[in-house]
Design a protein that fits this description.
CATH superfamily of the largest domain: Transferase(Phosphotransferase) domain 1
CATH topology of the largest domain: Transferase(Phosphotransferase), domain 1
Low-confidence stretches: none
Distance between the termini: 67 Å
Structural class: alpha+beta
Number of domains: 3
Helix content: 25-40%
CATH class of the largest domain: Mainly Alpha
Largest sheet: 4 strands, antiparallel
């Protein structure tokens, strides 16, 4: 059993620094089981302390007191996707889900390519994905994450409804995380909790049959991620991200991506250029097909928005 608390770090008495304190209560009567539970909790700490990604909380401390163990983590100001879905009282908007899916692919790709050994998250689901105040995804709860070794079987662990069939056989690979991501996206777009449905029945519950506002292109991407046989799914998170990027370009969701993600995913080429005598540091204004911009050369320029051609400029005062 366990809980997560919001706490204040009193090492900094003059400022309010909030942290998340994850508490694990170990009541197992068997000494060997108790030791295994502690080792698993320590494994989460050891994995987190080596990671450095904007979508993964930092870890500040780890300690045990009697039968309880604690992780002190970066506090995330936001809500998890399960709470957001409940508040919305219906399926979430496709554009938002697409952007979050692309960001989740980024962090999963980071984990799957981690050196010296890839890390499999093994528990992708809405409650383990937080959206912070900036609207960015944060992946939380690495309690069952593990290093991946080819050919090595593990325990049958995961969350029913989200985990793929092979994970029930102890076979957790990077492709298993792809299935769980697909199940998470299906849940967000339909508001149908897979834990309440028959296992592995996504093919019988097509997204567009439940929510017709979802594009066919996005449905195809998620259907591919949810295929029963691992070899038929996307074979890497990068492949799934590329497919999602194509959807985002067609549906317009690409405009919602953070600028850094856009620059990673596409080559931006200017339609035209116009050279001023000095820098432009302020925002430009567009109205009736004309661009108005001020420059440090003390001119206010008016340009044709379609081709950048000069219309007129006004010499401002130099204060």
């Amino acid at each position: 059993m366990g809980s997560v608390y919001r706490a204040r770090d009193l090492h900094f008495p003059n400022v309010i620094k909030l942290v998340a304190v994850k508490e694990m209560i170990n009541n197992a009567p068997d000494p060997l089981v108790r030791q295994t539970i502690i080792q698993n909790f320590e494994r989460e700490a050891n994995i987190l302390v080596t990671l450095n990604h904007v979508a993964i909380p930092q870890i500040f401390d780890f300690f045990s007191i009697d039968e309880r163990s604690y992780l002190v983590l970066e506090y995330v100001h936001g809500k998890d996707l399960e709470a957001i879905l409940q508040e919305n009282k219906g399926p979430l908007h496709e554009d938002n889900v697409t952007v979050w899916a692309i960001e989740l692919c980024d962090v999963l790709e980071y984990l799957h390519s981690y050196k010296p050994e890839p890390i499999i998250f093994r528990d992708m689901k809405p409650s383990n994905v937080m959206i912070n105040q900036q609207g960015r995804v944060i992946l939380v709860d690495f309690g069952i994450a593990k290093n991946f070794k080819t050919g090595q079987k593990g325990t049958m662990i995961g969350t029913e409804g989200y985990s793929p069939p092979e994970q029930y056989r102890g076979e957790a690979t990077p492709v298993a995380d792809i299935y769980a991501l697909g199940a998470t996206l299906h849940h967000l777009l339909t508001n149908h909790d897979p834990r309440m449905e028959a296992p592995f029945s996504f093919s019988e519950r097509k997204i567009r049959s439940i929510n017709s506002r979802v594009s066919l292109e996005l449905e195809v991407v998620i259907d591919t991620a949810l295929l029963y046989n691992p070899e038929e799914r996307y074979q890497s998170v990068a492949d799934m991200k590329n497919a999602l990027m194509s959807v985002a370009k067609k549906t317009g969701a690409l405009s919602r991506l953070p600028i850094s993600k856009k620059s990673e995913s596409q080559s931006v080429k200017p339609l035209w250029t116009f050279k001023c005598e000095d820098e432009i540091r302020g925002s430009v204004t567009i109205e009736n097909g004309k661009i108005y911009c001020g420059s440090y050369d003390n001119n206010l320029y008016v340009l044709d928005a379609s081709d950048g051609s000069f219309i007129w400029c006004w010499k401002t005062s130099n204060f």
